[in-house]
Every structure is written in structure tokens, then in C-alpha cells.
Amino acid sequence: MKRTLIIALSATLAMLSSTDGMAQSDHKAYDNIIDIHLTPGAPRRQNGCFTDMGSWMGFTLPEKNKPTAGFCGPFSIYHRNWYARSLVSIEGATTAADNYRPGEITMSLRKGTTDINESLQFVDARTALLTIRGVNASTVLTADSVSKKMSLRVDGQQVIIGNKGGEAVVLTFPPYVSLRQHGHNYKATTVLGHYEINVAISLVEQDTELTIVQSAVAGLLACPTPALQASSDRWQGYFNRVIRKDMPTEYNRVAAKSIVTLISNWRAQRGAVYHDGIVPSHAVNYFVGCWAWDCWRFSAAMASFFPELAKDNIRVMFDYQQPDGMVIDCIYPDASENNSRDSKPPLAAWAVNEIFEHNADTAFVAEMYPKLLKYHKWWYEKRDHDRNGICEFGSVDGTLEAAAWESGMDNAIRFDGTQMLRNADDAYSTNQESVDLNAYLAMEYTLLKKFADVLGVEFNLPDRRQGIADYFFDSTDGYFYDRRLDADRTFVREAGCEGYIPFWANIATKQQFEKARRLLDDPKKFSTYIPFPTIAADNPKYDANGYWRGPIWLDQTYYGIKAYRNYGLSKNADAYTRQVFERLKGLTADAPIHENYDTHTGATLQASHFSWSASCLLMLYNDYGKK
Question: What is the pTM of this model?
Fold first, then answer.
């Protein structure tokens, strides 16, 4: 696993922390930030866990009606299995209380008349440090229900529990703990006089990593305080950069939860994923890879508080840039699962610009510029069927399924009845020029020109921006639509979220925005209980739980709200933001952030612990109250 990101982290955050950071909210003040109670053996459901530093393992808190005498897990995020009900449990103890704060989980236990307190923090991508205070000579540590599918052996001060997939968890105890094997388990007892025990819990992917872990953990257990302080300082650094003193407490909690969600979905490089990246959700079994337009959003949101990871999260997708310039849809640690049938909407330059705007990193712009330029050209070479300078979504294999995936809006109503057209052996377009795609490309052109100026290099791309907004604007309806590749260039009159992307991309006129407000301000269409659904709410095909055929996706809601801010209506943008923060179910309480939401009720839908929703909430938070 890569170490450069982790080594650089403390220095980066120290540089980013503002001088008045200590006056801002303490990250430890956010008790029970997200409900992660789940005892292994309970009915399987989407549930998040406490994980940090890009680790591929996580821990949960026990359910009150299914208690354990220790933190639950660890859970293998890659293999989707539990190593134990609780790998370090205190014999004879009962749980009194627990808490999940950003960067740490804690638990209070009671054994007879003795109070025992536990805390768990990650010190790097491999290792979490468990600290147990209040132990005495009668304290016995053991595992609660080690998985029978795992091998277990005791070697010196280590318990090594193996997984058939080559993964293993290693428990390392300090020298003052007596450790022995006990059947398919272990027993550890303390030596008299030690009130506190530190136990290192490490996840290794192969046997060769055991010696690396042994060396690193020996120093950690000998002197744990610096590592624990660094973990706390790192989290405080995130909060110093994000949390605003002028915001309501509930809104600060939304920002805190968004940070926690993004960091929980950070995964260290593994297998064929060559940089650290952010997955859409660690709580869902099929989200163990990285998706292109997801990554662009994550990086844009993280630019303000974790630029080094934001940069790697862009690199992770460009590691697989094809010779013709295409950036493929998604990548996995097992490269055989990669999807190269389609790309995703071109938002990478926007993400790079967000990073540049926050830290003026010209070196990163120089690194990415030729790759972005090649990707921009690819769209016009492979996705412009009639060579008129206006592109269509499409696919490599000629299927409409992959073309819809390329749009990011898999089952959107606008693609009902769409057909595929062949451009080349490896390139097909829909018979539909899409307004959002061409708005993104127009914005990308502007940013590429900006990057060329920053770098002092020649810029000679043809400027295709002129007339794009007018071309897609239907003056009869006063709204932006896709257009069919037929003789009349017929508008696809299904008023959807793609129609307000030109306002987010700032390529539309003020007059066009004023005309579009007839739809945007209509509570039966887009100004709904939660604003800006994926299709106008009065569309006959509207489906409240129809994925891209009705529900709220927070990226699209962010685009709609940002449109008002772009065109001078900040008070309207703030009012819509308040609707989002105050009406999404559980958002200001302990519910996880979800993939999408019901337009009319704010009820949660689809995947939980969702990164792009968290990213867009964070960007809405950052914009709130600004002109």
C-alpha cells in the first residue's frame, strides 16, 4: 500500500489549518454522528462502519438488543465478511454506552464494580489502535465468535486470523499481556500494575506484509501517544478548514457528516487500483471500485480540506486513460471487473480547477493538463456522429445500456425511444445530442484555456462554445432540451435535470434563465418539497422511486441551486439550501447520507453512506450565505 499520501498528510493539514482554527467547532463535539450500530449475525442490511485512513476494514457498534463486550468486527470491506462478532472482547463485561465521533469510536463497559473504557482510532491504512483503560489483573480479553471460515493461530504476542482470499487480521498485544491459544480462539490476561492496554488491529493482504506490520506495530505499542494525537490533529484539521462559525449548529452537523462520509469511503490503493481513491459507498457490496464522474465530484468537495487525496482521487481514474484519450467508466482492484464500455460526463477539468482554486497547485495542473486535453478531444473524435461540433453520449460496444451509463443517468426518461448510431468500430453515439454533455464540454473548454494560460503554453483547440446555449434552448417552452439527430433536430421535450446544467455551467444568458424560471419555480415541476428532482414532478412518467425518473439526486439539486447563485439570486439559492438541509430525513440527526431521496417527503432511497451526496451537501454548505 502507498505510504506517501499518509506521510504527507500531517504536514499538509498543518499548512492548511487556519490560525483561528481552534475557535471553530471541535471535531470531538459531534457525538453519534452516524448510526453504525450492527451486531454481526443480525439480518444483513446496508450498514456503514467506522473506518478511516483508507483502510479496507471497519468496525461497528453493537446493537442494544444484541450486545457485545467490545467493538464489533472487524469487517472486510473488500471480501464483505466479518472476522468475528467482536475480535477483542472483555470476559464478563456488559456495555453501558457507546459513541461514534468523527475519527473515533468509544465504548463504556462494566465488569462487576469496575468501569472499563475503550476507544478505537486508525493510525494508518493497515492498523487501528484499540485503547482499553480500567483493566486489572482479573481482566481477560478474548474474541467473541471468531468466524469458523477463518484460520487462527497465536505466534508470540500476535493472533493471526486468516481469510481464504489471502487477507488476514493480526492482533498485536504489548509485552505485558500474557497471550495463549484457546481452541479456535485466544485468551489474553494483563500483568498486575497495568491500568491501560493498547492492542493493534492490522489488516494485511498477503503474508509478505506481516513483517512490515510487525515492525511498524512494535514502535506504535511502545509509544502510542504521538500516533493517537496525529489522528486527532488530522480530524481537527479537516474541521478547521470546513466548519463555519456563522452557520447554524444543525448545518455544521451536515458538513461534519459529509466529511465523515467521504473519509469513510476513502480506500487505499489495492490490486489494480493504483492510487488512493473514494468509493461511492463502503456499505454496499458492489461499490468497491471507483467511478469517473463520482470521483470528479468527490475531489471538488475535498479540495478545500484534503487536497492531496482529492488529487489522487483524480489520478486513480486517469491511470486507466485509453490511448485514444477515453477515461473509462469504472475501475476495481480486480481489473477484470473494470467497465470500459463507456465513459462518464466530462467533469474532470472542473475538479482539477476546484483544487487549483483552493491551493494554486500549478504542478498538479501541469500534470493533468495534457491528459485533460486528450480526453476533451476524444469526445469530438468519438462522440460527434455528424461532425457538427455537438456531441452525443454513446458507447464502445454499440449498446444503449452503456450509452445511458455514459450519461450517468442510467434510466432517464429522455432516453426512452433513443437509438444507437455507428461512428466507428469502437465508437457509437445515441441519435440524440445532449444538452448537459455539451454544457460540460463548453465549461471544460473554458477551463482548459485557463490552464493553458496558467502554464504559459499554446492553446489551439477549436472554440465550439458559441451558440451551444441557443441551440439547445426551446424558446417556446423556455427550457433546455436534448435534440434528436433527425432532419428537424426535434427537441426531446421531457423537462429534466439536464435542462438546468447550462445555468450551472454558466453558458446560458440571463434572459434564458428568467424564461426557465417558469418551470424552475413551479412547485409542481422543480420547486418541490425537496427542490430540483431529476424529472419535472408533474411528468406522467414520474416515478417517486424510479432512480433517474423522479427522485432527488443531490448532485442535480446542487446544480439547480448553484444556477440561482450564478444568476444573482443568492437569497433564492439559500432558501432552497435550507429546504435540503432541514427536510431530508435524518440528515441533521444520526441517519447516514443516502444516494437519493423522495422528492415529496425527503425519505431516504437506495444506497446509504453515499459519497457524491455528501460531496454536494458540502458544496452547498460552502456556498450558503455567499453572493
Answer: 0.95
